[in-house]
Amino acid sequence: MEKKPYMKPTIVRHTPGGVLNKFGRPPQTVPMRRIEGFDVSELAGEYGSPLFVLSVRELKRKYRELDRTFRTRYPDFQLAYSYKTNYLKSVCSILHQEGAWAEVVSGFEYDIAADLGVPGGRIIFNGPYKTRGELKRAFENGSIVNIDNYDEMQVIEDLAEEFGRTLDVGLRINMDLNDPPWHKFGFNYESGQAFEAVRRATSGGKLNVVGLHMHTGTYVDDLTIYSRGAQGMIDFYRLIRDNFGVRLKYWDLGGGFASMNTLHWAYLPAEQTTPTVDQYADAICSVLLAADLGGEEPPKLFIEPGRAIVDDPFYLITSVAAQKRLPNGRRAVVLDTGMNMISSVQWYRYQFQSAQDSGTTVEDTTVYGALCMNIDVINHSLSLPPVRRGELLVIPRVGAYNLSQSWQFIYLRPAVIAIDDGRVHVIKRAETREYVQQFEQVPEDYSLPREPADGAAS
Amino acid sequence: MAVKFTNDVTLSKSGFLFDHASGQTYTLNPTGQFIFRLLEQGEESERVLPQIVAEFNVSESTARKDLDDFLRQLHELGITE
User: Fold this and answer.
1) I want to staple B57 with a disulfide (CB 3.0 to 4.6 A). Which of A3, A94, A230, A457 is the partner?
2) Is B70 close to A19, i.e. CB distance below 8 A?
3) Range of the domain at B41
4) Residue A157 CB partners (closer than 8 Å, separation 6+)
5) What ipTM goes with this model?
6) Bridge partners of A13?
């Protein structure tokens, strides 16, 4: 007689929020065996675990949705991809093929864009720290530069003198839109600093203010922040146009759109709180297009999303290293990956799925990362079916910030593969110890003998 | 040695377990139900292991580890003494 399929025996106590969920979120019992048609266990077998997987189709879909939605609402629109959210070269290159410009915040990111072949005129250079050399190169290449502070303005005025011509610049402004407000970037509107900054920039005769830039926050799911920000930008433009004769070529509303990941402190899941792309576009475009600019054509509109494009198309395949019972009877699982690979666990309540059929009985579980550090917890409370060592889990929506913020610690970082129309491309090989230590050297004085010295063993 | 239950408990056909004294409810998966019914019938815990291996497609070493974990869970949940 054929034996029955085996599942680890489990008993789960019913607790509110565990098995029963008033929001109706299905427990994590539906296995994710395949990603874009590829068997998860075969991918892990060939490329190792943990493993980052990019769905190219999903990446393009996210980009096209954003681009089309804004382009159909605003006559002169351009999306600039926020490099810092994920600057894997293949990711950036695919998005540039789709038509994105580059939004960079450091010389390092600028070099990535330039090396990929992005024309200088399609690079927007933001960020609070830009060196003189980086600024010089950006102006020589015709890039858009948005000034963050007076020190930077001084450097750019010096460059204008060196070039012997006036330079077109944008100014970063901030407004009291959030609580607490984001005052770090640029000059404040309400206090009059932004007005003074335009006066200062235009009075020197070396700079030509042609743009305004505003970055309202990150993971912003309050649409009024964008609509109030857009209205503030219109009001400010009228002010500086009337006072200083400024004529804008562009206004830039930055990024900060939320993704479908749920924040730890959120009461409702992101599916119910994250606005749609249409809602973001309406909040911005309807306000900007309603502006009375006295017959003037509305300036070009830039937005700089990152998270909203790259978060969803990435998956992390990880395997169970161990499971244990905590002293209070609670189940805990240890993974083969840690918060150094997915640092967004600090913000996100990641939902996982098993990659194999593990039954429908779920248990509230603490999920630990692999790091030998007590703080490395991937999820404090996850409804998981029984899993055993070696079994695979899939964490979806891991593309934003995790790869660019990952840090090598204790373990080597994994490979990244891209799945595209039935093909698999390795877009980043797994790290090796030689790669990690390539710039280290041990001076001879500190070297250990390779052979034990005479008598050392006695 | 036979396992002793703390309270009067009832396991339904679908794996729903009700503790009559505390009012607490639980869900057991099919393997858990199989083990629970043996224990309920007074089967000694040492004799449960070969019956799991005979019934299910599982190695003895895996089944032993899982059975230990399951019995410990029953105890920690206060279902068995």
Assistant:
1) A3
2) no
3) 30-81
4) A204, A206, A207
5) 0.95
6) B26
pLDDT at A200: 95
Identify the domain boundary among A284, A310, A336: A310
Residues A306 and A317 in one domain: no
| Residue B56 placed within a domain | yes
A 297-356 near B (Cβ less than 8 A):
325, 329
Counting as low any pLDDT under 50, the low residues of chain A are 17-24, 458
Judge whether A7 is closer than 8 Å to chain B, CB to CB. yes
Q: How far apart are CA A298 and CA A400, in angstroms?
A: 32
* Cα–Cα distance measured from residue A426 to residue A417, given in angstroms and rounded to the nearest whole number: 4
What is the reported pLDDT for A16? 56
pLDDT at A90 (0 to 100): 98
Cβ neighbours of B34 in A, within 8 Å: 9
Residues 378-417 of A with CB under 8 A from B: 386, 388
Please choose, from the candidates A358, A352, A338, the residue with its C-alpha nearest in 3D space to the C-alpha of residue A395: A352
CA distance linking residue A94 with residue A27, whole number of Å: 35
pLDDT of residue A17: 47
- Omega prior to A180 cis, within 30 of 0: yes
Q: What is the pLDDT of residue A19?
A: 43
Residues of B at the A interface, defined by Cβ within 8 angstroms: 15, 17, 24-32, 34-36, 54-58, 62-63, 66-67, 69-70, 72-74, 76-77, 79
Q: Specify if A41 maps to a domain.
A: yes
Across B26-41, average pLDDT: 93
pLDDT at A308: 94
A312: its two tokens: 């969803």
